[in-house]
Amino acid sequence: MEAELEAVFFSPQSQTVSEGQAVFLQCVSGNSSPPAHITWLKDNTLFTKGTQIQGQYGGGNQRKTLGTLHLSNVLIEDDGEYVCVTHNALVNSSLESKAATLTVQGRQPLSKAKELIVDFRKQGGGHASINIDEAVVERVSSFRFLGLHITEKITWTVNTTALVKNAQQHLYFLRRLSKLYRSIIESFLTGCITAWYGNCSVHSHKALQQVVKTAQYITEPCSPPYRTSKDLAHPSHGLFPLLLSGIRYQSIGSRVPTGLQITQGPDNLTIAMETEVSMCCAARGFPAPTVQWFKDSHLLVNSSGLSLQNKGQLLVFKNVSEEDEGSYHCEARNERETIRSQPAYLLPAVMEWSFVLQPTNQTVRMGDSVTLFCRPPYSRPPATVSWFKNNRLLTPKTHFTVGPNGDLIFHSAHDTDRGVYFCRASNVHLYRSVTSRTARLTVLGKTSHMT
Protein backbone atom coordinates (compact mmCIF):
# COMPACT_ATOMS: atom_id res chain seq x y z
CA MET A 1 0.00 0.00 0.00
CA GLU A 2 1.44 3.34 -1.05
CA ALA A 3 1.94 6.10 1.48
CA GLU A 4 -0.67 8.85 1.09
CA LEU A 5 -2.60 11.59 2.90
CA GLU A 6 -5.96 12.75 1.61
CA ALA A 7 -7.79 16.01 2.44
CA VAL A 8 -9.49 16.40 5.81
CA PHE A 9 -12.71 14.38 5.78
CA PHE A 10 -14.57 16.28 8.55
CA SER A 11 -13.70 19.74 9.90
CA PRO A 12 -14.51 21.08 13.40
CA GLN A 13 -17.74 23.08 13.76
CA SER A 14 -18.14 26.61 15.10
CA GLN A 15 -19.68 26.90 18.60
CA THR A 16 -20.92 29.57 21.00
CA VAL A 17 -20.66 28.70 24.70
CA SER A 18 -20.69 30.42 28.07
CA GLU A 19 -17.58 30.74 30.20
CA GLY A 20 -17.08 27.68 32.41
CA GLN A 21 -18.83 25.19 30.11
CA ALA A 22 -17.20 22.18 28.43
CA VAL A 23 -16.36 22.18 24.70
CA PHE A 24 -15.65 19.33 22.28
CA LEU A 25 -14.09 20.04 18.87
CA GLN A 26 -13.81 17.06 16.53
CA CYS A 27 -11.92 16.49 13.31
CA VAL A 28 -11.57 13.45 10.98
CA SER A 29 -8.58 13.11 8.68
CA GLY A 30 -8.74 11.81 5.13
CA ASN A 31 -7.46 8.34 4.25
CA SER A 32 -3.84 8.08 5.29
CA SER A 33 -1.16 5.37 5.16
CA PRO A 34 0.32 5.18 7.70
CA PRO A 35 -2.44 6.62 9.99
CA ALA A 36 -2.37 10.41 10.27
CA HIS A 37 -1.41 12.28 13.44
CA ILE A 38 -3.62 15.26 14.43
CA THR A 39 -2.61 18.50 16.14
CA TRP A 40 -4.56 21.71 16.77
CA LEU A 41 -3.94 25.38 15.97
CA LYS A 42 -5.59 28.35 17.65
CA ASP A 43 -5.28 31.62 15.75
CA ASN A 44 -2.46 30.03 13.69
CA THR A 45 -0.53 29.07 16.86
CA LEU A 46 0.04 25.52 18.12
CA PHE A 47 -2.55 24.81 20.82
CA THR A 48 -1.54 22.47 23.64
CA LYS A 49 -4.22 23.13 26.28
CA GLY A 50 -7.06 20.77 27.10
CA THR A 51 -7.25 17.04 26.43
CA GLN A 52 -6.40 15.90 22.92
CA ILE A 53 -7.58 12.40 21.97
CA GLN A 54 -7.20 10.54 18.67
CA GLY A 55 -7.98 7.09 17.34
CA GLN A 56 -9.19 5.14 14.31
CA TYR A 57 -12.40 6.42 12.73
CA GLY A 58 -15.13 3.98 11.70
CA GLY A 59 -13.31 0.69 12.34
CA GLY A 60 -12.81 -2.10 9.82
CA ASN A 61 -10.71 -1.10 6.80
CA GLN A 62 -11.07 2.63 7.45
CA ARG A 63 -7.79 4.53 7.20
CA LYS A 64 -9.07 7.74 8.78
CA THR A 65 -8.11 9.20 12.17
CA LEU A 66 -10.57 10.87 14.58
CA GLY A 67 -9.18 13.70 16.70
CA THR A 68 -11.03 15.32 19.60
CA LEU A 69 -10.08 18.48 21.50
CA HIS A 70 -11.79 18.65 24.92
CA LEU A 71 -11.81 21.88 26.97
CA SER A 72 -13.48 21.03 30.30
CA ASN A 73 -13.67 24.60 31.63
CA VAL A 74 -13.56 27.07 28.78
CA LEU A 75 -12.28 30.59 29.52
CA ILE A 76 -12.65 33.95 27.79
CA GLU A 77 -9.10 33.66 26.44
CA ASP A 78 -10.06 30.42 24.67
CA ASP A 79 -12.17 32.48 22.25
CA GLY A 80 -10.76 32.29 18.70
CA GLU A 81 -10.40 30.25 15.49
CA TYR A 82 -9.40 26.60 15.70
CA VAL A 83 -7.92 24.47 12.92
CA CYS A 84 -7.02 20.80 13.04
CA VAL A 85 -3.84 19.75 11.18
CA THR A 86 -3.33 16.18 9.89
CA HIS A 87 0.29 14.94 9.49
CA ASN A 88 1.75 11.97 7.64
CA ALA A 89 5.40 11.70 8.62
CA LEU A 90 6.23 9.13 5.93
CA VAL A 91 5.31 11.43 3.05
CA ASN A 92 6.29 14.54 5.08
CA SER A 93 2.90 16.12 4.37
CA SER A 94 0.40 18.13 6.42
CA LEU A 95 -3.15 19.28 5.59
CA GLU A 96 -5.38 21.76 7.45
CA SER A 97 -9.13 21.63 8.05
CA LYS A 98 -11.53 24.51 7.67
CA ALA A 99 -11.41 26.95 10.57
CA ALA A 100 -14.01 26.72 13.36
CA THR A 101 -14.84 29.77 15.46
CA LEU A 102 -15.22 29.28 19.20
CA THR A 103 -17.15 32.17 20.77
CA VAL A 104 -16.96 32.33 24.57
CA GLN A 105 -19.50 34.55 26.31
CA GLY A 106 -18.76 35.99 29.72
CA ARG A 107 -20.62 34.86 32.82
CA GLN A 108 -24.04 36.43 33.11
CA PRO A 109 -24.42 39.02 35.86
CA LEU A 110 -26.47 38.14 38.94
CA SER A 111 -29.65 39.74 37.59
CA LYS A 112 -32.18 37.54 39.41
CA ALA A 113 -31.28 38.80 42.86
CA LYS A 114 -33.96 41.01 44.40
CA GLU A 115 -34.12 42.96 47.64
CA LEU A 116 -37.27 43.12 49.76
CA ILE A 117 -37.27 45.22 52.93
CA VAL A 118 -39.82 44.53 55.68
CA ASP A 119 -39.62 47.40 58.17
CA PHE A 120 -41.67 46.95 61.36
CA ARG A 121 -40.67 50.33 62.82
CA LYS A 122 -43.39 52.90 63.26
CA GLN A 123 -41.22 55.51 61.62
CA GLY A 124 -39.24 53.83 58.88
CA GLY A 125 -35.99 55.38 57.74
CA GLY A 126 -33.87 55.12 54.63
CA HIS A 127 -32.07 51.92 53.71
CA ALA A 128 -28.78 51.58 51.91
CA SER A 129 -28.69 49.63 48.67
CA ILE A 130 -27.06 46.20 48.41
CA ASN A 131 -24.30 45.74 45.83
CA ILE A 132 -23.28 42.38 44.32
CA ASP A 133 -20.27 42.39 41.97
CA GLU A 134 -20.47 46.18 41.89
CA ALA A 135 -24.09 46.02 40.64
CA VAL A 136 -26.99 47.44 42.65
CA VAL A 137 -29.57 44.81 43.55
CA GLU A 138 -33.09 45.75 42.44
CA ARG A 139 -35.40 46.62 45.32
CA VAL A 140 -38.98 45.32 44.96
CA SER A 141 -42.18 45.68 46.96
CA SER A 142 -43.11 41.99 46.58
CA PHE A 143 -41.64 38.75 45.28
CA ARG A 144 -42.58 35.09 44.91
CA PHE A 145 -40.75 32.56 47.09
CA LEU A 146 -41.63 28.84 47.02
CA GLY A 147 -45.02 29.64 45.51
CA LEU A 148 -45.86 32.32 48.11
CA HIS A 149 -46.12 36.01 47.17
CA ILE A 150 -44.60 38.06 50.01
CA THR A 151 -44.99 41.84 50.19
CA GLU A 152 -43.07 44.45 52.15
CA LYS A 153 -46.22 45.30 54.18
CA ILE A 154 -47.00 41.63 54.92
CA THR A 155 -50.43 41.82 53.30
CA TRP A 156 -51.83 38.90 51.35
CA THR A 157 -53.84 40.53 48.58
CA VAL A 158 -51.15 39.90 45.94
CA ASN A 159 -50.76 36.27 47.03
CA THR A 160 -54.52 35.63 47.12
CA THR A 161 -55.07 37.24 43.72
CA ALA A 162 -52.37 35.07 42.17
CA LEU A 163 -53.73 31.97 43.93
CA VAL A 164 -57.28 32.56 42.70
CA LYS A 165 -56.06 33.20 39.16
CA ASN A 166 -53.99 30.01 39.16
CA ALA A 167 -56.82 27.91 40.57
CA GLN A 168 -59.31 29.32 38.05
CA GLN A 169 -56.97 28.41 35.21
CA HIS A 170 -56.93 24.80 36.43
CA LEU A 171 -60.72 24.55 36.68
CA TYR A 172 -60.84 23.68 32.97
CA PHE A 173 -58.67 20.63 33.57
CA LEU A 174 -60.70 19.83 36.67
CA ARG A 175 -63.80 19.54 34.50
CA ARG A 176 -61.97 17.06 32.29
CA LEU A 177 -60.20 15.19 35.11
CA SER A 178 -62.53 15.50 38.06
CA LYS A 179 -61.02 12.47 39.81
CA LEU A 180 -57.76 14.38 40.19
CA TYR A 181 -59.47 16.97 42.41
CA ARG A 182 -56.92 16.65 45.22
CA SER A 183 -53.78 16.87 43.11
CA ILE A 184 -54.95 19.80 40.96
CA ILE A 185 -56.88 22.09 43.28
CA GLU A 186 -55.94 21.29 46.88
CA SER A 187 -52.25 22.07 46.38
CA PHE A 188 -53.14 25.65 45.43
CA LEU A 189 -55.64 26.21 48.20
CA THR A 190 -53.81 24.67 51.15
CA GLY A 191 -50.19 25.82 50.77
CA CYS A 192 -49.22 27.85 53.89
CA ILE A 193 -52.91 28.50 54.47
CA THR A 194 -52.73 28.47 58.27
CA ALA A 195 -50.13 31.21 58.06
CA TRP A 196 -51.93 33.69 55.85
CA TYR A 197 -55.62 32.86 55.35
CA GLY A 198 -56.79 34.38 58.63
CA ASN A 199 -55.17 37.72 57.73
CA CYS A 200 -56.76 37.99 54.28
CA SER A 201 -59.22 40.72 53.47
CA VAL A 202 -62.95 40.03 53.15
CA HIS A 203 -62.66 40.43 49.38
CA SER A 204 -59.90 37.78 49.24
CA HIS A 205 -61.96 35.43 51.42
CA LYS A 206 -64.89 35.68 49.00
CA ALA A 207 -62.67 35.16 45.94
CA LEU A 208 -61.14 32.01 47.42
CA GLN A 209 -64.51 30.67 48.52
CA GLN A 210 -65.92 31.18 45.03
CA VAL A 211 -63.15 29.03 43.53
CA VAL A 212 -63.78 26.37 46.17
CA LYS A 213 -67.52 26.30 45.42
CA THR A 214 -66.88 26.00 41.70
CA ALA A 215 -64.45 23.13 42.21
CA GLN A 216 -66.90 21.44 44.62
CA TYR A 217 -69.71 21.79 42.09
CA ILE A 218 -67.59 20.14 39.38
CA THR A 219 -66.44 17.23 41.51
CA GLU A 220 -69.56 16.60 43.63
CA PRO A 221 -70.25 14.10 45.00
CA CYS A 222 -67.21 11.82 44.77
CA SER A 223 -64.56 14.31 45.82
CA PRO A 224 -64.48 15.75 49.34
CA PRO A 225 -65.50 19.42 49.40
CA TYR A 226 -63.86 22.28 51.25
CA ARG A 227 -65.66 24.75 53.45
CA THR A 228 -64.46 27.77 55.33
CA SER A 229 -65.20 27.91 59.02
CA LYS A 230 -63.96 29.55 62.18
CA ASP A 231 -61.72 27.64 64.55
CA LEU A 232 -61.53 29.72 67.72
CA ALA A 233 -58.59 27.64 68.94
CA HIS A 234 -56.43 28.94 66.10
CA PRO A 235 -54.81 32.39 66.45
CA SER A 236 -55.94 33.41 62.98
CA HIS A 237 -59.44 31.96 63.36
CA GLY A 238 -59.39 30.86 59.72
CA LEU A 239 -59.04 27.40 58.25
CA PHE A 240 -60.12 25.27 55.30
CA PRO A 241 -61.03 21.97 57.01
CA LEU A 242 -61.47 18.88 54.86
CA LEU A 243 -64.94 17.39 55.02
CA LEU A 244 -64.86 13.72 54.10
CA SER A 245 -68.18 12.87 55.71
CA GLY A 246 -69.98 16.07 54.77
CA ILE A 247 -70.72 17.09 58.39
CA ARG A 248 -67.49 17.64 60.34
CA TYR A 249 -66.68 21.29 61.12
CA GLN A 250 -69.85 22.54 59.52
CA SER A 251 -71.50 25.47 61.18
CA ILE A 252 -74.51 24.94 63.43
CA GLY A 253 -76.82 26.59 60.93
CA SER A 254 -75.84 24.38 58.01
CA ARG A 255 -78.14 21.65 56.77
CA VAL A 256 -76.99 18.13 57.62
CA PRO A 257 -78.44 15.14 55.72
CA THR A 258 -80.04 12.68 58.14
CA GLY A 259 -80.83 9.69 55.93
CA LEU A 260 -77.95 7.45 54.87
CA GLN A 261 -77.27 7.73 51.14
CA ILE A 262 -74.78 6.38 48.62
CA THR A 263 -74.58 9.35 46.29
CA GLN A 264 -72.24 7.62 43.85
CA GLY A 265 -71.61 3.91 43.60
CA PRO A 266 -68.98 1.94 41.67
CA ASP A 267 -69.23 1.54 37.90
CA ASN A 268 -68.29 -1.40 35.68
CA LEU A 269 -64.64 -1.19 34.64
CA THR A 270 -62.68 -2.73 31.79
CA ILE A 271 -59.02 -1.88 32.25
CA ALA A 272 -55.63 -3.02 30.98
CA MET A 273 -53.65 -5.24 33.31
CA GLU A 274 -50.68 -3.83 35.25
CA THR A 275 -52.31 -0.40 35.47
CA GLU A 276 -53.80 1.54 38.39
CA VAL A 277 -57.54 2.18 38.62
CA SER A 278 -60.05 3.03 41.34
CA MET A 279 -63.72 2.58 42.21
CA CYS A 280 -65.63 5.28 44.06
CA CYS A 281 -68.34 4.91 46.70
CA ALA A 282 -69.45 8.33 47.97
CA ALA A 283 -71.74 8.11 51.02
CA ARG A 284 -73.23 10.68 53.35
CA GLY A 285 -75.59 10.75 56.29
CA PHE A 286 -75.89 11.42 60.00
CA PRO A 287 -74.21 10.01 62.01
CA ALA A 288 -71.23 9.91 59.63
CA PRO A 289 -71.14 6.57 57.80
CA THR A 290 -68.25 4.17 57.31
CA VAL A 291 -67.71 2.39 53.99
CA GLN A 292 -66.66 -1.21 53.41
CA TRP A 293 -65.91 -2.97 50.13
CA PHE A 294 -66.72 -6.53 49.08
CA LYS A 295 -65.55 -8.70 46.18
CA ASP A 296 -67.78 -11.63 45.34
CA SER A 297 -69.36 -11.10 48.81
CA HIS A 298 -65.96 -11.30 50.59
CA LEU A 299 -64.83 -8.34 52.73
CA LEU A 300 -61.80 -6.47 51.35
CA VAL A 301 -58.98 -5.02 53.43
CA ASN A 302 -55.78 -3.15 52.61
CA SER A 303 -53.19 -5.36 50.92
CA SER A 304 -50.21 -5.13 48.59
CA GLY A 305 -52.53 -4.85 45.59
CA LEU A 306 -55.49 -2.96 47.13
CA SER A 307 -55.67 0.34 48.96
CA LEU A 308 -58.72 1.74 50.77
CA GLN A 309 -58.52 5.53 50.81
CA ASN A 310 -60.65 8.50 51.82
CA LYS A 311 -62.19 6.57 54.73
CA GLY A 312 -63.02 3.66 52.48
CA GLN A 313 -64.84 5.73 49.86
CA LEU A 314 -62.11 5.02 47.29
CA LEU A 315 -60.95 1.50 46.39
CA VAL A 316 -57.62 1.69 44.52
CA PHE A 317 -56.22 -1.23 42.52
CA LYS A 318 -52.49 -0.55 42.45
CA ASN A 319 -51.61 -3.03 39.69
CA VAL A 320 -54.59 -4.74 38.04
CA SER A 321 -54.13 -8.48 37.49
CA GLU A 322 -56.32 -11.43 36.50
CA GLU A 323 -56.99 -12.13 40.19
CA ASP A 324 -58.79 -8.76 40.47
CA GLU A 325 -61.57 -9.81 38.09
CA GLY A 326 -64.90 -10.10 39.83
CA SER A 327 -68.03 -8.40 41.13
CA TYR A 328 -67.55 -5.54 43.62
CA HIS A 329 -69.96 -3.58 45.79
CA CYS A 330 -69.70 -1.25 48.76
CA GLU A 331 -71.73 -0.98 51.95
CA ALA A 332 -72.23 2.23 53.93
CA ARG A 333 -73.29 1.93 57.54
CA ASN A 334 -73.74 4.01 60.65
CA GLU A 335 -75.41 3.50 64.03
CA ARG A 336 -78.87 3.62 62.47
CA GLU A 337 -78.78 1.69 59.19
CA THR A 338 -76.77 -0.10 56.50
CA ILE A 339 -77.19 0.31 52.74
CA ARG A 340 -75.58 -1.45 49.81
CA SER A 341 -74.57 -0.19 46.36
CA GLN A 342 -75.28 -1.84 43.04
CA PRO A 343 -72.60 -4.36 42.00
CA ALA A 344 -69.90 -3.37 39.53
CA TYR A 345 -67.77 -5.78 37.52
CA LEU A 346 -64.02 -5.34 37.01
CA LEU A 347 -62.77 -6.99 33.82
CA PRO A 348 -58.99 -6.99 33.14
CA ALA A 349 -58.51 -6.43 29.40
CA VAL A 350 -56.20 -8.88 27.60
CA MET A 351 -55.41 -9.71 23.97
CA GLU A 352 -53.05 -12.31 22.55
CA TRP A 353 -50.76 -11.66 19.58
CA SER A 354 -51.49 -14.58 17.23
CA PHE A 355 -54.48 -14.76 14.88
CA VAL A 356 -56.66 -17.85 15.06
CA LEU A 357 -57.16 -17.73 11.26
CA GLN A 358 -55.57 -15.35 8.75
CA PRO A 359 -56.69 -14.42 5.21
CA THR A 360 -55.28 -16.32 2.21
CA ASN A 361 -55.09 -15.57 -1.53
CA GLN A 362 -58.41 -16.07 -3.30
CA THR A 363 -59.51 -16.14 -6.97
CA VAL A 364 -63.17 -15.54 -7.86
CA ARG A 365 -65.23 -15.01 -11.00
CA MET A 366 -66.96 -11.65 -11.30
CA GLY A 367 -70.43 -11.80 -9.75
CA ASP A 368 -69.68 -14.83 -7.55
CA SER A 369 -69.32 -14.79 -3.79
CA VAL A 370 -66.06 -15.23 -1.88
CA THR A 371 -64.92 -14.91 1.74
CA LEU A 372 -61.61 -13.68 3.12
CA PHE A 373 -61.26 -15.28 6.54
CA CYS A 374 -59.99 -13.42 9.60
CA ARG A 375 -60.36 -14.80 13.10
CA PRO A 376 -58.74 -12.33 15.55
CA PRO A 377 -56.59 -13.30 18.53
CA TYR A 378 -58.23 -14.19 21.84
CA SER A 379 -59.27 -10.93 23.47
CA ARG A 380 -61.32 -9.69 26.43
CA PRO A 381 -63.44 -7.82 25.62
CA PRO A 382 -63.67 -9.20 22.05
CA ALA A 383 -61.37 -7.48 19.58
CA THR A 384 -62.70 -5.15 16.90
CA VAL A 385 -61.76 -6.20 13.35
CA SER A 386 -61.04 -3.69 10.58
CA TRP A 387 -60.19 -4.55 6.97
CA PHE A 388 -57.73 -2.74 4.69
CA LYS A 389 -57.38 -2.84 0.91
CA ASN A 390 -54.14 -1.69 -0.67
CA ASN A 391 -53.11 -0.21 2.74
CA ARG A 392 -56.29 1.89 2.97
CA LEU A 393 -59.13 1.38 5.44
CA LEU A 394 -61.97 -0.40 3.68
CA THR A 395 -65.24 1.55 3.70
CA PRO A 396 -68.53 -0.41 3.76
CA LYS A 397 -70.37 -1.05 0.49
CA THR A 398 -73.57 -2.85 -0.39
CA HIS A 399 -71.95 -5.90 -2.04
CA PHE A 400 -69.68 -6.90 0.86
CA THR A 401 -69.96 -7.06 4.66
CA VAL A 402 -67.78 -7.87 7.66
CA GLY A 403 -69.17 -10.81 9.60
CA PRO A 404 -69.49 -10.90 13.40
CA ASN A 405 -66.49 -13.25 13.55
CA GLY A 406 -64.30 -10.87 11.49
CA ASP A 407 -64.58 -12.47 8.01
CA LEU A 408 -64.87 -10.22 4.94
CA ILE A 409 -67.74 -11.57 2.83
CA PHE A 410 -68.20 -10.52 -0.82
CA HIS A 411 -71.76 -11.34 -1.89
CA SER A 412 -71.07 -10.44 -5.52
CA ALA A 413 -67.47 -9.75 -6.51
CA HIS A 414 -66.82 -6.69 -8.66
CA ASP A 415 -63.85 -6.03 -10.90
CA THR A 416 -62.86 -3.14 -8.58
CA ASP A 417 -62.56 -5.55 -5.65
CA ARG A 418 -59.26 -6.97 -6.86
CA GLY A 419 -56.31 -5.97 -4.67
CA VAL A 420 -54.27 -6.80 -1.59
CA TYR A 421 -56.19 -7.17 1.70
CA PHE A 422 -55.32 -7.59 5.36
CA CYS A 423 -57.28 -7.39 8.62
CA ARG A 424 -56.39 -5.64 11.88
CA ALA A 425 -57.66 -6.63 15.34
CA SER A 426 -57.69 -4.01 18.09
CA ASN A 427 -58.68 -3.80 21.74
CA VAL A 428 -59.58 -0.21 22.60
CA HIS A 429 -58.95 -0.79 26.30
CA LEU A 430 -55.34 -1.79 25.61
CA TYR A 431 -54.61 0.85 22.94
CA ARG A 432 -53.08 -1.98 20.93
CA SER A 433 -53.70 -3.64 17.57
CA VAL A 434 -52.42 -6.72 15.73
CA THR A 435 -52.20 -6.92 11.92
CA SER A 436 -52.63 -10.11 9.87
CA ARG A 437 -50.60 -11.15 6.83
CA THR A 438 -51.72 -9.89 3.41
CA ALA A 439 -53.88 -11.80 0.92
CA ARG A 440 -54.50 -11.04 -2.75
CA LEU A 441 -58.00 -11.19 -4.21
CA THR A 442 -58.05 -11.86 -7.98
CA VAL A 443 -61.33 -11.22 -9.85
CA LEU A 444 -61.75 -12.92 -13.25
CA GLY A 445 -64.07 -11.76 -16.01
CA LYS A 446 -67.37 -13.51 -16.59
CA THR A 447 -66.13 -15.27 -19.75
CA SER A 448 -62.83 -16.29 -18.22
CA HIS A 449 -62.20 -19.81 -16.93
CA MET A 450 -60.59 -20.55 -13.60
CA THR A 451 -57.54 -22.81 -13.75
Description:
The chain is mainly β and 451 residues long. The protein folds into four domains: 4-105, Immunoglobulin-like, CATH 2.60.40; 146-243; 261-349, Immunoglobulins (Immunoglobulin-like); 362-444, Immunoglobulin-like. Helix content is 12%, strand content 36%. The chain has four helices and 38 strands. A hairpin with a 4-residue loop joins strand 9 and strand 10 (93-96). Pfam families: ALKBH8_N, I-set, Ig_3. Keywords: Immunoglobulin domain. Residues 6-103, 257-340, 348-442 form the Ig-like domain. It comes from Salmo salar.
Classified in CATH, the superfamily of the largest domain is Immunoglobulins
Name the shape in a single word.
flat
- Termini, distance in Å? 63 Å
Largest sheet properties: 7 strands, mixed
Output the CATH topology of the largest domain. Immunoglobulin-like
